[in-house]
Amino acid sequence: MSKPANHDQEDISYYRKNYKYVDGRVHQITADGTIPVVCYKGMGGYCGLYCRGKFITLHRFIWLLCHGTVPKVIDHINGDTADNRIENLREVTHRENCQNKKCHREGNAPGVYATKTGYKTMIRINKTRIYLGEFGTEKEASTVYQTACDNIASFKNDIGAFLRLIQKESGITTRSLPKGYYWDKQLQLYITTICIHYKRVHLGIYAVEAHAAEASKQAKVLKKRYKKDPEGFLTEWKRLKSEVKATQSPIIPKIYQDSK
Questions:
Q1: What is the pLDDT of residues 224-245, one digit of tens each?
Q2: Domain residue spans of the chain
Q3: How far apart are CA 154 and CA 202, in angstroms?
Q4: May I ask the CATH class of domain 9-93?
Q5: d(Cα 251, Cα 157) in Å, to the nearest integer?
Q6: What is the C-alpha to C-alpha distance for residues 215 and 222, in angstroms, rounded to an integer?
């Protein structure tokens, strides 16, 4: 994909009158026939040509010659940006263009990322990044992501309602981290986190697994008072940690009881 140049109707008429497409190349029409146009490599590694004071990428120029218009996004089907045959070009959305990256053509599912405990998936809609959940298998995460793509039109800026719709349509339920903490191989320590209103909050780092587990347990009780306020939760958590700092306690004291 490349940033499109602006072309008015006069430009388009000039291009189609003076240039023609020939098997993945552009030829200029002259009185003696046609001659191949010299192309240059521009930003992003795309080849292009200068015409009427504008640098135009070759694949966009070829599309314009063949169809008379230039869409916002043109994708190279086989991923080879040097292969500008018209049969290798297609009009797509920005999301579809990203899904045709090399890593996805090699088998990696779009929108899915491997973690230490499973596979997470997320999607961006109208510049809003939505965390769809973490799943036990790549197939489950991919199914949820594809379901989200199919239901983008249903997103009305209500993340909770959108997630419930995706869960209903896919029939797959997200799962949390098994224990609320995980072992970091590089640090050789346990890292504790918790998810509050779709935001992952870092709780602390512990050398002993029992301490990480206890911190996670206490955080889940505290979470009930800050269900939709991750910033408020974090402020209270830091306050509690500062209160016990003088006692050298590795965890938050059990001052919160799970009330029914």
A1: 888 788 888 888 888 887 766 5
A2: 9-93, 109-170, 181-247
A3: 32
A4: alpha beta
A5: 38
A6: 11
Residues in Cβ contact with 193 at an 8 Å cutoff, skipping those fewer than 6 apart: 177, 180, 181, 200, 201, 202, 203
Residue type for position 229: D
Residue in the structure block whose two tokens are 């206490």 = 218
pTM assigned to the model: 0.55
Q: Encoding tokens for residue 42?
A: 């521009």
| Whether the Cβ atoms of residue 172 and residue 135 lie closer than 8 Å to each other | yes
The pLDDT tens digits for 189-237 are 888 888 887 777 788 888 887 888 888 888 888 888 887 888 888 888 8
Residue type, 79: G
The length of the chain is: 260
What is the 3 state secondary structure string of 14-33?
HHHHHEEEECCEEEEEECCE
What is the β-pairing status of strands 112-114 and 128-135? unpaired
